[in-house]
């Protein structure tokens, strides 16, 4: 007779924890943008080292409230037993195995340096979050934002124009040359019967054809201009990390729900550069000044390559324009007030956007009087919108504005 031997079940907290919940609790740390250098001990010196990750994990487990009562009691017991550090190491190992992070092991400090034959200093192990983590964080941010908006599902951009297509959502009409043959069978047969009567065979003529109408679903090319000047982390508030989260959520929304749309990312500071969306979570605050004009020029070059029905620039900023790229490549800077040269050159670029049919929507994370004046002028010139918001409400405003195009047509 076969015997089965049972042993006492020993729980493994590291294997039972949800890495998704843990990753969500670590999102502020993983997406850090430079604010960590301003007095928050959790983030150390800003380097993403394993020691910092261990401290962040410990804080997330003990202070963030992501565990149930039973799990918290077990963690307290592990602290008393001295096995809590072992749990942290197992969690890091599991995060690496499941491709949430990649670890860069340091060089062996025992090896001799090439300078003076001395032994090199010990280096700390570093890590990076993977594309899998970025995709999850983008989905989580989008889900949280949509939950706060009361939305459970969303589709493509709908406009008020009707055209023949695949999905029937409007009344049928007489077929015209060039229409998609999405035939309304019932209406077509009814026309033929009314003309000839109920006879067999039933002759259907060209004039009998009726086709379904559907709501015209437009495509949109969006360039997100993200201000990464140093003011985005000054004054005791991190404005850049929430802006990055919103950009990740918008990217996830477009990729999963609006596949016909495109999204490009520009960072503007002393100058401006296009950044791949895959690198968004890794970017940090840059130099000090705000070269809005250079960002608009680069955005226009990107949009010129797009063949979309609608083209728009979404600008997230907390400061007025304070820099300008001169014809010889030098950067002219003036952070004191609204510099007439900087403002005039920037508004000329706004005028070019208007002539090209590019809409500019501005999301302001500050209420500086000079910034308000400048943004009001931009809004008047390009018939865009201006939103005075905070890092906590930025995502709601931006996603609501983006999806409101479901009922609007912009030519």
Keywords, separated by commas or semicolons:
single chain, 411 residues, alpha/beta, 13 helices
Number of separate strands: 13
Question: C-alpha Rg, in Å?
Answer: 28 Å
Looking at CATH, the homologous superfamily of the largest domain is: von Willebrand factor, type A domain
Structural class by helix and strand composition: alpha/beta
Number of domains: 3
As for the CATH topology of the largest domain, it is Rossmann fold
Could you describe the largest sheet, including whether it forms a barrel?
A: 6 strands, mixed
Average pLDDT, rounded to a whole number, is 77
Helix content: 25-40%
Low-confidence segments, given as residue ranges, are 38-46, 111-121, 151-169, 406-411
Describe this structure in words.
Strand 6 (220-227), helix 9 (240-257) and strand 7 (262-268) form a beta-alpha-beta unit. 38% of the residues lie in helices and 17% in strands. The protein has 411 residues and is an alpha/beta fold.
Summarize the structure.
The chain is an alpha/beta fold and 411 residues long.
Task: Detail the topology: elements first, then pairings.
Layout: H1 13-16, H2 19-25, H3 27-30, H4 50-63, H5 69-81, H6 84-97, E1 101-104, E2 126-129, H7 131-149, E3 158-163, E4 170-174, H8 185-196, E5 210-217, E6 220-227, H9 240-257, E7 262-268, E8 272-275, H10 292-304, E9 310-317, E10 323-325, E11 331-333, H11 340-355, E12 359-364, H12 369-382, E13 386-388, H13 394-403
Parallel strand pairs: 6-7, 6-9, 9-12, 12-13
Antiparallel strand pairs: 1-2, 3-5, 4-5, 7-8, 10-11
Helix pairs in contact: 7-9, 7-13, 9-13, 10-11, 11-12
């Amino acid at each position: 007779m076969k015997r089965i031997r049972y042993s006492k079940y020993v729980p493994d907290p590291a294997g039972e924890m949800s890495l998704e919940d843990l990753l969500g609790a670590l999102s502020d740390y993983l997406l850090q943008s430079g604010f960590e250098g301003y007095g928050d001990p959790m983030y150390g010196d800003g380097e993403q080292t394993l020691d910092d990750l261990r401290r962040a994990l410990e804080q997330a487990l003990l202070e963030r409230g992501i565990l149930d009562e039973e799990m918290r009691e077990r963690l307290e017991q592990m602290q008393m037993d001295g096995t809590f550090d072992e749990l942290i190491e197992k969690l890091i190992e599991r995060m690496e195995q499941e491709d949430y992070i990649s670890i860069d092991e340091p060089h062996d400090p025992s090896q001799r340096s090439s300078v003076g034959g001395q032994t090199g200093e010990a280096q700390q192990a570093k890590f990076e979050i993977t594309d899998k983590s970025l995709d999850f964080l983008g989905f989580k941010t989008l889900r949280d934002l949509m939950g706060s908006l009361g939305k459970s599902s969303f589709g493509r951009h709908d406009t008020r124009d009707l055209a023949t297509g695949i999905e029937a959502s409007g009344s049928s009409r007489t077929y015209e040359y060039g229409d998609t043959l999405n035939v309304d069978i019932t209406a077509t047969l009814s026309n033929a019967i009314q003309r000839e009567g109920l006879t067999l065979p039933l002759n259907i003529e060209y004039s009998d054809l009726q086709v379904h109408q559907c709501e015209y679903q437009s495509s949109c090319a969006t360039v997100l201009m993200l201000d990464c000047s140093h003011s985005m982390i000054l004054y005791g508030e991190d404005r850049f990390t929430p802006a990055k989260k919103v950009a990740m959520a918008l990217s996830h929304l477009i990729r999963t729900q609006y596949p016909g749309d495109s999204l490009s990312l520009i960072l503007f500071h002393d100058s401006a550069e296009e950044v791949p969306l895959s690198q968004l979570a890794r970017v940090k605050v840059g130099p000090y000044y705000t070269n809005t004009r250079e960002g608009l020029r680069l955005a226009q070059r990107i949009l010129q390559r797009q063949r979309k029905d609608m083209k728009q620039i979404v600008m997230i900023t907390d400061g007025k324009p304070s820099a300008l790229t001169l014809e010889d490549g030098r950067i002219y800077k003036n952070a004191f007030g609204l510099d007439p040269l900087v403002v005039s050159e920037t508004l000329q670029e706004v005028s070019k956007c208007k002539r090209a049919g590019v809409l500019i929507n501005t999301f302001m994370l500050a209420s500086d009087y000079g910034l308000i004046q400048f943004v009001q002028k931009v809004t008047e010139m390009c018939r865009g919108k201006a939103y005075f918001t905070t890092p906590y409400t930025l995502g709601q405003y931006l996603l609501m504005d983006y999806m409101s195009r479901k009922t609007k047509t912009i030519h």
